[in-house]
Amino acid sequence: MYGGFGFLSQFYRDLRAQKLRTVLTLFGITWGTVAVVLLLAFGVGLYRRSLATMHGMGERIVILWAQKTTKPYKGMGIGRPIRLRDEDAWLIKREVPEVEAVAPEYSRWNVKLKRGRKATNVRISGVYPAFEELRNLFPQQGGRFINPLDIRHRRRVIFLGDEVKENLFGEEEAVGKTVTLNGIPFTVIGVLRKKVQTSSYYGKDSRAGFIPASTFRSTFGHRYINNLIFRPKPGLSKEAIDKVYRVLGTRHRFDPEDRDALMVWDTTGIDKFLFYFFFGLNLLLGIGGACTLAVGGIGVANIMYVVIRERTGEIGIKMAVGAKPRHILSQFMLETMLVVATGGALGFGISWAAVEAASLLPDKVKDAVGTPVISPPVALATVLVLGAVGFLAGYFPAKRAASMDPVQALALGKFGI
To answer: Global pTM?
Structure first.
């Protein structure tokens, strides 16, 4: 009586009898699904693009500069400059367990870099191998970054930003070639892999050159570093910064509570801001898409009321021969979910095609708005919204059908009411 696929064929005939209403209902569910998926997909894509541009400078890093004291400390007055050396970085690494990596940095601006007749003025940074990972300075294929042997032997080697390489070499291979830095020959060991970088503290890495710190000191005679960079362990940024103040305060004799003695830029704060900002944005976009999908759900509910009215006699017969209210309820709930699932599947297909098409947009457009992504959370959120819409659209009509009196239903069905 109740099993098999008989109810599906009956439901199909009911939908065909209401072709226009069925098409409009499916369109509402499909369009609502597209709205939810694409709005969330673009939100996720924009969030990932924003993170990528921010992490072009480095991920979860803290940049620290020495300043002047603003509080008296153990008989010493204010305004005393703090000077940092390489040893301060190694001290932090040893004494602050909350820090997982650290690297000092020397910098000099407007250094003439020349190859043949081509020349350009760039910023040159003297760095250590750990700088590569901390600052996302990864080389293009065929090259490398500075290594410990370069530091130990004070090698005259240079790692070029990709824009600097283009200015000096054009399309020609640069690795293994020689450039002169203020007239001193340096061998190119690597070229920066192209990256998106909107945040920086001295300028874009693509427009800079990087040499071993030991070579930098011997070339330019610098005794003090310009800044140091460290990466706190996840979730321990504040604790790491507080301990760094205490360690450096003891070494350089300034009050650890004198926060102006050191200038600190904690980029993990931006990560938190972006997370909460885009969480709110995606929530807003999801609500907007869900409202559009809810309109389609109202259409589903209306067509189910029509179907139930036209099948009143059938419902009465089934209940008269022993069908329980839960059987009637489950039947019409299932039929409603079929409509919603069909519209949802169409919506997912259209959304997937739109996302694939968006991936073919010019890089300039994708750099601005990101590339939409149908990530697992987006798919799960859409399925949950579809499930909620399907349940609400089907429950109330199905409950009405299940609560009918068999005698009354037979009578109404007989007279076509």
So the answer is: 0.70
